[in-house]
Amino acid sequence: MSIAIIVAIGWLYVTVLMAASQPTVLAAIATLLFYGLLPTGILMYIMTAPLRRRRRIAREAAADAAAREAGAAEEAKQSSNP
User: Fold this and answer.
1) How many helices (H) and strands (E) in the chain?
2) What's the pTM value of the predicted model, to 2 decimals?
3) Sorted alphabetically, which keywords does the UniProt record give (predicted)?
């Protein structure tokens, strides 16, 4: 993942330089947006999908474990009270 961040930073640096060399401000903004930010954002979203999936699964597993633990504690409490 760290190599992807380095590549993204490099690409954004290149697009900032491309935008700085444009003759108008509108062309510079369009260059920065359509050659830099939009493609980089899409690629970073796609490349971080496995990480987001692993985090979601871990979060769901933790929630399931907490629910099972709470249920077991409730059952133990009710079984101890006659």
Assistant:
1) 4, 0
2) 0.67
3) Membrane, Transmembrane, Transmembrane helix
